[in-house]
Amino acid sequence: MNPAEPIRISKILAQRGIASRTEADRMIERGWVSVGGRVAIPGDRALPDAEIVLSNEAKAQLKDAFTIVLNKPRGFVSSPDETGGARAMGLLVADNFCGLGQPPSFSTFGLRVAGRLSVLEAGLVVFTTDTALARRLAAADVDESWRIDFASPQAPEIADKIVADLAAIKQTAQVTNGAPNSITLTTSSLVKGQLTALCDTLGARATITRLRRGEITLGADVPEAQWRVL
């Protein structure tokens, strides 16, 4: 596309990390977005470097972004468009809340998953309405920490093979030995389910748990299948 060609204003806001295209379209529909001193209407276009002004109502809505940390069990899919397991978002009910005080009232509409997690892997899943956070956590090269618990006493040998296999495809990884038959792996640029596939290839039975993605850490205060507000 020619850089000087006008594009939809909602796309510009999404590209700048201000709001998702859906959020931007809703703000435009409500008359909360102005371009060149004129209130934008649905379908309006502007140059990519146009000056866009948000109303106080739009700024307040973006400021009130909502983020949830879930400890997903194995057997659950992290995103509604995935198949092969129960929906992890279905765990976001009051009975599974482990934060302080009463669980907040909210709608799962508008929550998006920031960094998907394989149905065969457990641990940290982040759901958020914060567009900027979602973009950071969904980046392909974001750092992650994982705990791998092996079913047999071969952790050091298998860990070395995992690091070597990742290095072969130009992905770096650091390993810290934990409890017996357990390691913590810190790496980036993994695709969904890649660690499970590596362990399967090496013939290693293991339980894989994501502990951290980007700046968000699961924490020991979130038991399996429970959630808290960030």
Give, in order, the helices and strands.
Answer: EHHEEEEHEEEEEHEHEEHEEE
User: How would the global form be characterised?
Assistant: elongated
Describe the largest sheet.
Answer: 9 strands, mixed
What oligomeric state do these chains adopt?
Answer: single chain
Q: Ends: how far apart? A: 39 Å
Weakly predicted, low-confidence segments? none
Radius of gyration from the alpha-carbon trace, in angstroms: 21 Å
The number of helices is: 6
Q: Which percent band covers the strand fraction?
A: 25-35%
- Count the strands? 16
Residues in helix, %? 10-25%
What is the SS-derived class? alpha+beta
Question: What is the typical, i.e. mean, pLDDT?
Answer: 87
Write a structural description.
By secondary structure, the protein is of the alpha+beta class. 23% of the residues lie in helices and 28% in strands. It has 6 helices and 16 strands. Strands 6, 9, 10, 11, 12, 13, 14, 15 and 16 form a 9-stranded mixed beta sheet that branches. It has a 3-stranded antiparallel beta sheet with strand order 3-2-5. β9 and β10 form a beta hairpin. The longest helix has 14 residues. The protein is elongated, with a radius of gyration of 21 Å. The mean pLDDT is 87.
Q: Keywords, please?
A:
single chain; 230 residues; alpha+beta; three-stranded antiparallel beta sheet; 6 helices; elongated
SSE blueprint:
Layout: E1 7-8, H1 9-15, H2 21-29, E2 33-35, E3 38-39, E4 45-46, E5 52-54, H3 56-63, E6 67-72, E7 76-77, E8 86-87, E9 112-113, E10 122-128, H4 131-138, E11 143-150, H5 155-168, E12 173-177, E13 182-188, H6 194-201, E14 206-213, E15 216-217, E16 227-229
